[in-house]
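User: New here, any thoughts?
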Amino acid sequence: MRNAPPARRTAGLVLAGGEGRRWGRPKAWVELPDGRTFLEACAGLLRAAGVDVVAATLPSGSTGSVPGGVVSVVLPAPGLDMFASTRLGLARLLEEGWSAVAVLPVDHPLVAPSSVAALLAEDAAAVVPTLAGRHGHPVCLARRTAEGIVAGTLPGPTLRDVLRAAAARDLEVGDRGIRANCNTPEALAGALEAPGARDPAR
């Protein structure tokens, strides 16, 4: 590991390694109505939140377009679970200097950048956003927590187990996007039509 990073440098990890069977193609390259892919939207909202370095896990054998400046972490085999993908993505990101990371599933492209910024500003081992008391995404991890995941001292088998072990803090953000799991065409349409839905282009 490198030396401790500057105090407020932050990172973002987009979990985009799924095959997207319900979409008929990997979710990373599913398009929003404005023509941007889910991956582009997620990388964009992280950048808008002030994140300094963004990485994305991608499907094995991936040939799809990746936004400029995003570090690609191509998974070594298909079928890896989300926790294994998270460990691989974090391992690559730990080569960079940062103090906190937002871990965002690619099928949550409607999260408001202000929510990510608020989560990353918290001084905690892990922070989970809530809406009316219900958990959402992204989760944010301190560097020491990410190091524990990669080293296996904070084992899974799920990220939820890690968050429990790290005594994750809840943060109410009042953002519908954190709960908008766009894992099917119907779910995306419903999220975009919901009252108060954020325009994903902003």
Summary: The radius of gyration is 16 Å. Strands lie at 10-15, 53-58, 70-74, 100-105, 126-131, 134-135, 139-142, 169-172. The first strand starts at residue 10 and ends at 15. Residues 82-93 form the longest helix (12 residues).
